[in-house]
Automatic annotation (TrEMBL):
The keyword ATP-binding is assigned to this record: no
Entry protein name: thioredoxin-dependent peroxiredoxin
Similarity comment: Belongs to the peroxiredoxin family. BCP/PrxQ subfamily.
EC number annotated for this UniProt entry: 1.11.1.24
Organism: Gelidibacter salicanalis
Biological classification of the source: Bacteria, Pseudomonadati, Bacteroidota, Flavobacteriia, Flavobacteriales
Enzyme class: oxidoreductase
PANTHER family noted in UniProt: AHPC_TSA FAMILY PROTEIN (PTHR42801:SF4), THIOREDOXIN-DEPENDENT PEROXIDE REDUCTASE (PTHR42801)
Keyword terms, alphabetized: Antioxidant, Disulfide bond, Oxidoreductase, Peroxidase, Redox-active center
Length: 150
């Protein structure tokens, strides 16, 4: 896993969102952006995390943040996840893992005694110039907005 840190330039990316639109880092130039990576749509912790951001969406927007969720789920799964929970922000369907790998969040994980490669739950806060302001690698799903704003 590559370790991006505060002060690094955010990787340029291009991926399809839940509606099939192409989304790039350049689309957010001049805006603050929260990019949160999660392992799998419709799983308990990922749902809690995404719903926390949904529930505090207005507060995040008032502070100038745009939000993007990213997983390797298909566009259809992302669309279903977004619709089911009423998310007001795009979810990227990064099936080829290009964005996931560019941000360095793909790597070895351990769960219930087994080791495998997967997506690490990491959030990046990116400033208006595309620089990483903060990396949250110990995401607490129930209070994720607090972690972003503190």
């Amino acid at each position: 896993m590559t370790k991006l840190k505060a002060g690094d330039q955010a990787p340029n990316f291009s991926a399809k969102d839940d509606q099939g639109n192409t989304v790039t880092l350049a689309d957010y130039k001049g805006k603050k952006l929260v990019v949160f990576f999660y392992p799998k749509a419709n799983t308990p912790t990922c749902t809690t995390e995404a719903c926390n951001l949904r529930d505090h969406y207005k507060e995040l927007k008032e502070k100038g943040y745009e939000i993007l969720g990213v997983s390797a789920d298909s566009q259809k799964k992302q669309a279903n996840f977004k619709e089911k929970y009423d998310f007001l922000y795009p979810l990227l369907a990064d099936e080829d893992k290009d964005v996931i790998k560019a941000f360095g969040v793909w790597g070895e994980k351990k769960f219930m005694g087994r080791t495998f490669d997967g997506i690490h739950r990491v959030t990046f806060v990116i400033d208006e110039n595309g620089m990483i302001e903060k990396v949250i690698d110990k995401v607490k799903a129930k209070i994720h907005t607090e972690q972003i704003l503190e």
